[in-house]
Amino acid sequence: MRILSILFALVFVFTSWLQAQDASMDAAKQDTTWRFQAGLGFDLSGLGIINPRVGAGTNRLAIGGLGTFSANRTGRRSFWKNQLALQLVLQKQGRTSPTQPKDFLKNLDILRLTSTYGHNVGSGDKWFVSADLLTQSQLLPMYQSNYLRPTEIDGKPDRLVSNFLSPLIVQFSPGITFKPNQHLSFQYSPVAVRFIYVADDSLALLDIHGNKVTKDVQGNIIEYNNYFLGLGSELVGRYNNKYYDDRISVNSTLRLFSDYLNKPQNMVVLFTNNISIQLFKNLSLDLLGEAFYDPNLKMIIDANKNGIYGDDGDRLAPATQLTGAFMLKYNVIF
Questions:
Q1: pLDDT means per 10 residues in the chain (334 residues)?
Q2: For the chain, which terminal residue's Cβ has fewer other Cβ atoms within 10 angstroms, N or C?
Q3: Could you list the residue range(s) of the whole structural domain that residue 59 is in?
Q4: Residue 275: which CATH number?
Q5: Is the overall model pTM greater than 0.85, yes or no?
Q6: Which among 112, 66, 103, 107 is positioned nearest to 89, based on CA atoms?
Q7: Number of domains in the chain
């Protein structure tokens, strides 16, 4: 926790310094108007059957969606963009056997906060001294079975594999931003910090979330830490634009992080994309796509190619996680 406190203090001091510079250089002309926007995308469906006929199916309930809140300020010499996003989808299927679990199955759970601040340097409007912050965790606990509570399936014991703040990923990148136009920007940081923290000791011992774990030649754990601290460089590319009379909007962000201290050739990659199609006023159809890779994190690999993740024969190893979703979203600007 001491390292986490120092990291957040560094973020606060650096951002406060940039704001002070902005205010002192252009206090009379600075536009301090904030623009707030919230969006809520729904994934809600249900089906109920009593005394179903043979071949009719079974009950189903799915609930969740995408919630976003953004607070942005663009001044004459600076910009500050913040977004809090939650992707959460749960599903409960009707039981067809006494051994089938009763609880909700988790489909998606991502809690992410991003904040980017930039202060213009020079006479043009393309170069900025900037700082970028990315934090990510999850909201609800999850067990190896993907259920929210421990569930014994086929006689196999269940165990907790992740929880709120276990893991927590924090990435802070001070550097320079280049904006060739209003739709495209590139930020580079030569001194980026990547911090992974696992609050639960039992989860830190699993050696799957990227915290530091030392093993002997037999694979037994002899020492572990609840955290991993990486120092490297990061390149962030962002693109946003609207087409067809503003009825289609595209937002893409690509993050590439290279750790100087641990195999710098194996980069951490986060590629997020959101295509929003305006249907009616404030109502849109959003298409989400994301690719994520971290050489320090382990994913479930379907080694036996049977389409079931987590059964016998599968293995845990670094791999690229691909996520896709679509949903109706209601947006509000205030």
A1: 48 50 46 83 76 73 87 89 93 76 86 95 85 95 87 78 94 95 95 95 91 86 91 96 93 96 91 94 90 88 72 78 87 76
A2: C
A3: 2-26+34-333
A4: 2.40.160
A5: no
A6: 107
A7: 1
